[in-house]
Amino acid sequence: xxxxxxxxxxxxxxxxxxxxxxxxxxxxxxxxxxxxxxxxxxxxxxxxxxxxxxxxxxxxxxxxxxxxxxxxxxxxxxxxxxxxxxxxxxxxxxxxxxxxxxxxxxxxxxxxxxxxxxxxxxxxxxxxxxxxxxxxxxxxxxxxxxxxxxxxxxxxxxxxxxxxxxxxxxxxxxxxxxxxxxxxxxxxxxxxxxxxxxxxxxxxxxxxxxxxxxxxxxxxxxxxxxxxxxxxxxxxxxxxxxxxxxxxxxxxxxxxxxxxxxxxxxxxxxxxxxxxxxxxxxxxxxxxxxxxxxxxxxxxxxxxxxxxxxxxxxxxxxxxxxxxxxxxxxxxxxxxxxxxxxxx
Amino acid sequence: xxxxxxxxxxxxxxxxxxxxxxxxxxxxxxxxxxxxxxxxxxxxxxxxxxxxxxxxxxxxxxxxxxxxxxxxxxxxxxxxxxxxxxxxxxxxxxxxxxxxxxxxxxxxxxxxxxxxxxxxxxxxxxxxxxxxxxxxxxxxxxxxxxxxxxxxxxxxxxxxxxxxxxxxxxxxxxxxxxxxxxxxxxxxxxxxxxxxxxxxxxxxxxxxxxxxxxxxxxxxxxxxxxxxxxxxxxxxxxxxxxxxxxxxxxxxxxxxxxxxxxxxxxxxxxxxxxxxxxxxxxxxxxxxxxxxxxxxxxxxxxxxxxxxxxxxxxxxxxxxxxxxxxxxxxxxxxxxxxxxxxxx
Amino acid sequence: xxxxxxxxxxxxxxxxxxxxxxxxxxxxxxxxxxxxxxxxxxxxxxxxxxxxxxxxxxxxxxxxxxxxxxxxxxxxxxxxxxxxxxxxxxxxxxxxxxxxxxxxxxxxxxxxxxxxxxxxxxxxxxxxxxxxxxxxxxxxxxxxxxxxxxxxxxxxxxxxxxxxxxxxxxxxxxxxxxxxxxxxxxxxxxxxxxxxxxxxxxxxxxxxxxxxxxxxxxxxxxxxxxxxxxxxxxxxxxxxxxxxxxxxxxxxxxxxxxxxxxxxxxxxxxxxxxxxxxxxxxxxxxxxxxxxxxxxxxxxxxxxxxxxxxxxxxxxxxxxxxxxxxxxxxxxxxxxxxxxxxxx
Amino acid sequence: xxxxxxxxxxxxxxxxxxxxxxxxxxxxxxxxxxxxxxxxxxxxxxxxxxxxxxxxxxxxxxxxxxxxxxxxxxxxxxxxxxxxxxxxxxxxxxxxxxxxxxxxxxxxxxxxxxxxxxxxxxxxxxxxxxxxxxxxxxxxxxxxxxxxxxxxxxxxxxxxxxxxxxxxxxxxxxxxxxxxxxxxxxxxxxxxxxxxxxxxxxxxxxxxxxxxxxxxxxxxxxxxxxxxxxxxxxxxxxxxxxxxxxxxxxxxxxxxxxxxxxxxxxxxxxxxxxxxxxxxxxxxxxxxxxxxxxxxxxxxxxxxxxxxxxxxxxxxxxxxxxxxxxxxxxxxxxxxxxxxxxxx
Lengths: 344, 344, 344, 344
Hints:
- Four copies of one chain form a homotetramer.
- By secondary structure, chain A is α/β, with parallel strands linked by helices.
- The first copy, chain A, folds into two domains: 2-152 and 313-343, Quinone Oxidoreductase, Chain A, domain 1, CATH 3.90.180.10; 156-291, NAD(P)-binding Rossmann-like Domain (Rossmann fold), CATH 3.40.50.720.
- Helix content of chain A is 27%, strand content 26%.
- Chain A has eleven helices and 16 strands.
- In chain A, the strands form three sheets. In chain A, strands 3, 4, 5, 6, 7, 15 and 16 form a seven-stranded mixed β-sheet that branches.
- In chain A, strand 11 (240-245), helix 8 and strand 12 (260-268) form a beta-alpha-beta unit.
- In chain A, helix 4 (154-165) runs parallel beside helix 5.
- The longest helix of chain A has 13 residues, at 182-194.
- Chains in contact: A-B, A-C, A-D, B-C, B-D, C-D.
- Chain A binds chain D through residues 102, 107, 109-110, 248-249, 253, 262-263, 268-280, 282-293, and chain D through 102, 107, 109-110, 248-249, 253, 262-263, 268-280, 282-293.
């Protein structure tokens, strides 16, 4: 099959012929890729930030990145009963064991033996990808792979954090979203669909804020140095119940904390910076900080229900797989609007 | 002041002059009534169904019913700090003590010493009513007493049940609402505002079903004897995650149970019939039955936030207080569209 | 292998040679039975109460009952990674798929494709039994199959109900246990280990009540017609927060409801009778009724942790497998103290 | 009355005559102090660390510290119905309004208008103290003020954190307690009474660890630089589900984080240091940090139920009020074993 292979860090990927993936275990599923999302993590891979971790996991270059995949089932192992050849599916980013406590508790992402195609195994920047029966979700007839692929990881991360925050978001509460980009724009739509909280979106880009209103924001605030003050005014001086920080660096994880009211919760979703808070402050105000990884398989099933109902719509730009390097250049240069999607 | 007084069961109420209520304790609040909802419970009172309970509580005829009230603060006791004379307020239906475990746990409705004006103390079918500081909620500028009075009890009951059900209603789940009447129409709007569940509304009245679609129903099913079968078809034979039964009599509490899937929850909100289920069935399918009373003070605060945001809109008909008997006749005869509201 | 086979309802089981079970699918696990609990359900099977259900599921006589099993792994399918030949294990009563939403949510007992050995497939009244990788839990070194086999179903049912009840059982609350028998005696120990609630045990057998105090009961009350009054006295007239009904028939499901305080929860665990409650009562007191099935795989892992720590100890009597009919006679005649265990 | 007054920071308190507190509002309660706990916060007050905050709140020296109080009701305001003169009571540390959302949600500690006697109003190092009806809890006959006073704040803080952690502490889980001192020794007993988690206690003092075993610890680990490694060994390399950090300074808030397993929760209870965690780490391991303030009134009711049942026993040393400066010297010098209690 054709695949976009990374041979060397910081160098263009090469489109070349590689062997088709094969069914070798009872629960294996081979999927013909219909769409593969391009994620900022793919840039970090390309820069070699995951070199050590990849070597440790046994992955050697060249290989194909791509961890946000959707397509059609091409072949299945003998024990697979939940999908058939030809089924249209989205792929949960992890292959999981189904036997450990985490898998049996709805927390597949903490599976003791998880495999992460695209990062530590061959990914979806190719015509086919190998995954497992526990990772495929049939798509509603109304959805195509290009409609949903980036929901497999970026969208799923946003959904997961919001689902954890929902019990805190009663009508009359206020929820700040920091960052109206790739994850944030899905997050805002999920919040609107599942709660009546007052949504306040903060971003340093005025265009993103304008879009945010269409996605369901009640208020938008430009990050210009006065954003903390403005949120205080919006909340009568009290601060907000929940901050969803989709940025996690560049200071957001500092001034973001100042937005909280007493007993507020700060959800760390974006990353890069260091969270530093005096324990005295955590105690006097009883604030908490919640880490968030990507969501579970069932979370992705639920996000697909939102997508099928038209309650979550992805903002994206499509490229042929052969243009993968163009797509990456556009992402680096900030020219890529919405999430980038590669189509083999 | 003028008041509509019940002198004798089954006889018209009389509009007459009675002494104004007076502040006699530190937390007393006197409210000038702007709107008083007319509830089916008022008919039951008028029929004498609460005669024994009222006598036991020390209430003697004549008195004014009316337990869904909103208006303006007229006078306050010395210890009242949360409202001032002139404030526009809605009244939680109960006066509560603030000292018992229930009050201190957010469950004021189970207050050990609660007083229920309109049922066991003078109510809101009058120009003024006496309540307590713990029962008044300031209204948003955009809302008037006639917009919200019936939300104080009927709406609050619906809201409370739905809030309890929310953790069960993930995207992809199905929730049946039985009864699209006074409580149901608020319930459907609350469900839509706070969840992305698939809402299926069942009613024996086709007109009510047509309205339900405007309130947010995804599907409507006429109760004609085939309703169980139709819901099974809508859910791929599985049944639904939650049934909210706003009827509770006339068989709904029987066939309603047949709508549940394994691990389903049945919320009893309407009343009148007997729930009868073999324990064997409860075990094999692990289904549960949840009783529901009116909501707490904080629940009403949250419902007012939904109303202020325009997410819950009341369907009502207004009468002058002097026409209270006409309003009751209309309610009995089924001529009253939406909730009836009396305006002194 | 030797097996105790049921050839005809109401007739003694026969010990005879049958073919050994074989690994035929990737996740199959064959276990050499070390102990098989004898349950009242086995009597119901023997009486033919499950005849129709068994025929429907494709099971034909003769076959071996036995759904509470522990022993040593004898053989495993190619995909099994969580146990090895020789491992000492207890068996969750169901074989589950690992692919459906329930399995992925920690609710394996509601698996869409579950198989129930002992009821709808060959069970553990035999030298070997076939189960699946998702059903075996390694035992702590300190525990032997005869220490724990009945915890696989009877104990697990009690544990599951109590785990659901725990959030209601704060210090200062009161929890009634109706029935201090096979399930109840495990339930009382689980309650004591996991909560500081005041435990009140009700039984019609004074000997059982005496034992209950050793298991952790704070109070015991003889079921003699005055039990409701006595519980009211113990709770200052308020009633209790939770009733765990391990009987579910003979009136317990009627007078048991009278024990509840406002907002109380009644857990249906035993079965046989009909639960009948006016919806008016459910609303005025806001009481709820919770159905309970056997627990999940993770629940059984947790119960084994309690057993390994000595916090839950089984009260049992052991018989050689060849004496299965004696054991059943003893169970019928009420001569069997604690749970009966068959040892092949 | 006699009172120990702080006239100047860093100088001995003076025992002198001051006017008795008087009932001046409907819900006021005057309590004759039977026991007042001495807390490390009292040292911080004495050092002037709260000088600015006290001035801001309107408190001027001289005044009496003391925020862990128990005694007998001496006088009550006109609206007080929950206690009578002569009742034996413990005092929740805050006086709360009963009207704000927090008060009505079971979170009195976040009351918008709370008053904190001992810190921002006259405290319990005196013969009498003024509090409110919403702050007094009747003691069980079996308990005396000197048995419980320090539970009013130190114990209540420990209880509150543990109650929040309980849903994470299933049988088979592991919970680390850092610090077996004033708060920790109550925390360990609460954990043991309310859960079957494996309790691992870490302290730098071997004597404290020996005591911890008597309070319910399953394992103890000396903080000697190898503690992280030892906990890893105890948990099979996985780390623990919950860390309760009663120290919060001196590095505990750094190495304590290394004890967590994936999805672990770190409860910040002690304070002084800065919590600093890379957001990348919070995401990859999905760990969370939970701030904790003192518990609610209902929490204190529950803790008193544990004390009355003998499940929580305080380790303390008693001094006459006149020896307050000796007690403070002993606390500073580390000579005070258990919590110090002043008896007027």
